[in-house]
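Dear Dr. K.,

Following up on our conversation at the group meeting, I've run the structure prediction for DNA-binding protein HU 1 from Moorella mulderi DSM 14980. I'm pasting the input sequence below exactly as I used it, so you can double-check it against your construct before we proceed with anything downstream. Let me know if the numbering doesn't match what you have in your notebook.
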Amino acid sequence: MTKETLVKAVAAKAGTTQKEAARALDAFCEAVRDALAAGEEVKITGFGSFSVKERSARKGRDPRTGEELEIPARRAVVFRPGSELAAAVRGR
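The predicted structure tokens came back this morning:
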């Protein structure tokens, strides 16, 4: 599903225009991005939670040359599905 099809689906389910749905989706994405950048966790009951995880530096290998290299530490976004979302995906 692309952003365009998501906007259409949200507009249809909410009974609103696609322009309003696009504005709401953009605002949601911006709010989540800002919270994660500030190190906060975003929890949406029944859907899931977004958080930032610190990944430590580690050693790796270049698959083409086999040369060992250092992979730097970084922050990564993690999503954990909520129980309702997980059940819907499993088909319950």
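Two things stood out to me. The beta strands are 42-44, 48-55, 58-61, 68-71, 74-81. The two ends are 22 Å apart (CA to CA).

Best regards,
J.T.
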